[in-house]
Amino acid sequence: MKLSTWTAVDNFDGSIDEPLEDGDTALHITCLYGHLSCVELLLERGASVEVKDEDGAIPLHDACAGGYTEIARLLINNAPDAECVKRMLDTFDEEGDAPLHHAARGEHLDVIRLLIASGASACRTNLLGRTPSELVEPESEACRILDEAISAEIGRPYRSS
Q1: Which family does it belong to (predicted)?
Q2: pLDDT in tens, 108-153
Q3: CB neighbour list of residue 109: distance below 8 Å, 6 or more residues apart
Q4: Which residues contact 95 (CB under 8 A, 6 or more apart)?
Q5: Angle CA(20)–CA(75)–CA(84) in degrees, nearest 5?
Q6: What is the C-alpha to C-alpha distance for residues 65 and 84, in angstroms, rounded to an integer?
């Protein structure tokens, strides 16, 4: 990362969680575009992992939508406690999607696995009543992973397609 980025963040006199012109915070933008080193810097400087943008999304939604596994892991690992992780995994944006829905829509397998391993529910439905497994291609690896997670949650075999 350029020294100028560090200097700009260090000299910023507003709130690090303050939304920019488009309603996103700097953390949302760096997660959306996959800039791991910038995410690390913002977290070191105290950016909140639970800050919401104008659409009700938290930075984890953006990392999951982009398929950025290391950023998603970093955000989860920077949660102050298990309750915060649970809130992050269960946060729905304005469209009613949790981070797992975003990862599923992009069929980002490693992110899907990470979220499930971190406690995300594959059974949660969005505002349209759809589970993450209903957002992926039938018979895909993502569908298999999500169906297995649902089966584990409900205690019996499940198949979405």
Answers
A1: Belongs to the ankyrin SOCS box (ASB) family.
A2: 999 999 999 999 999 999 989 999 999 999 999 999 999 999 999 9
A3: 141, 142, 145
A4: 55, 126, 127
A5: 100
A6: 20
